[in-house]
């Protein structure tokens, strides 16, 4: 009997397969198709012949942990201990998995805010705990009335994703005040904050848990070098948590992977001395502006995009099809692969919206828009 009976082939795999079969432009999966910074590849090439190929310490390369502490201080004015409060993980996904496995016990409940990324639910189920799916408002802001109505003494964790995949929405100060009030009311409630797109925001920077001192002792923050530095295939992320919580997370981490790719950690460690994280924001803002300008001539309605490298669009004025049927037709008839938003909901809620990834080179974005003009 399967421990995850409802898990099948992901929509991301399905759409990418359809894109390949139909020679379509793939704006479905969330990874860049442009080269990484040549300075990083030069560092990697140099390191290949050096003695950096054996295990690093379980928590991570000590010098990289120290630089993450410095980056956190520079970005959020939060002081964290490199030795006790930071853990290098095999991507954000492993950080999320290890956190949930370490902290959530059988019979407890975890709140997931839909639409949500698909990696949250599986480790909850594998813990014999119960995922509680709560839909966001129609503008993809948190519905605090709904959230407060489902939190109880069994609720161990609430998972937030800010900036938000798939919608590109960011939280407001009032949202964090509501969260702090909720945490105050339930002494056993912890917050898992998925902030992998933290350096990809636009008109305003996102508000991080790292800036909310009232939440420090009750929160786990997940970050991703893969997303921030355009190196998703390296699978290097990190977790920030208070020492007492981190001790438990490390217990699980050591039996999942023990340590993360040594050469990748060494390369990122050197690269952090020269990379400007503000340039990452500027780079993706230019991508977003280009894509939105190209798409403005289509019949699709573009929703606000405050962060991430995803753009959500409504096709309600074009078709009454389900979003799954519409995205499949986009591939077969127009040659562009996207993701239907309903697949991010537990109940398959269909808002007639689809998600584009604009982390692509300019030529790809131009060609995709030209095809979508035919809608």
Automatic annotation (TrEMBL):
NCBIfam families given in the database record: PRK09082.1 (NF006569)
Identification of the protein by name: Methionine aminotransferase
Cofactor: pyridoxal 5'-phosphate
InterPro entries: Aminotransferase_I/II_large, Kynurenine-oxoglutarate_AT, PyrdxlP-dep_Trfase, PyrdxlP-dep_Trfase_major, PyrdxlP-dep_Trfase_small
Source organism of this protein record: Flavobacterium aureirubrum
Cited CDD domains: AAT_like
Keyword annotations: Aminotransferase, Pyridoxal phosphate, Transferase
Pfam families the record matches: Aminotran_1_2 (PF00155)
Aminotransferase class I/classII large domain location: 24-372
GO molecular function terms noted in the UniProt entry: transaminase activity
């Amino acid at each position: 009997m399967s421990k995850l009976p409802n898990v099948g082939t992901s929509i991301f795999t399905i759409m990418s397969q359809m894109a390949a079969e139909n020679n379509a432009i793939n704006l479905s999966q969330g990874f860049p198709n442009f080269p990484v910074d040549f300075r990083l590849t030069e560092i990697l090439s140099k390191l290949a012949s050096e003695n950096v190929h054996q295990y690093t310490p379980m928590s991570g390369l000590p010098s990289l942990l120290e630089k993450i502490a410095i980056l956190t201080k520079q970005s959020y004015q939060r002081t964290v201990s490199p030795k006790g409060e930071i853990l290098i993980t095999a991507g954000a996904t492993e950080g999320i998995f290890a956190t949930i496995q370490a902290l959530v016990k059988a019979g407890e409940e975890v709140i997931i805010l839909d639409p949500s990324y698909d990696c949250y639910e599986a480790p909850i189920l594998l813990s014999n705990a119960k995922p509680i799916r709560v839909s966001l408002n129609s503008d993809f802001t948190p519905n605090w009335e709904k959230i407060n109505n489902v939190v109880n003494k069994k609720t161990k964790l609430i998972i937030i994703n800010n900036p938000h995949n798939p919608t590109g929405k960011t939280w407001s100060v009032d949202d964090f005040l509501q969260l702090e009030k909720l945490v105050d009311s339930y002494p056993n409630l912890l917050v898992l904050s998925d902030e992998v797109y933290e350096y990809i925001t636009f008109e305003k920077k996102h508000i991080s848990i790292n800036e909310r001192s009232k939440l420090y002792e009750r929160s786990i923050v997940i970050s991703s070098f893969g997303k921030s530095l355009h190196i998703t295939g390296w699978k290097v992320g990190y977790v920030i948590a208070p020492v007492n919580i981190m001790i438990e997370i490390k217990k699980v981490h050591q039996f999942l992977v023990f340590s993360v790719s040594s050469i990748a950690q060494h390369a990122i460690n050197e690269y952090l001395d020269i990379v400007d994280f503000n340039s990452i924001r500027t780079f993706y803002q230019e991508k977003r502006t280009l894509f939105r300008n190209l798409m403005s001539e289509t019949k699709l309605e573009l929703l606000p995009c405050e962060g991430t490298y995803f753009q959500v669009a409504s096709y309600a004025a074009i078709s009454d099809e389900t979003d799954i049927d519409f995205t499949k037709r986009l591939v077969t008839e127009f040659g562009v692969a996207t993701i239907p938003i309903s697949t991010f909901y537990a109940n398959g809620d269909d808002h007639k919206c689809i998600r584009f990834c604009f982390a692509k080179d300019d030529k790809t974005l131009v060609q995709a828009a030209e095809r979508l003009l035919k809608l």
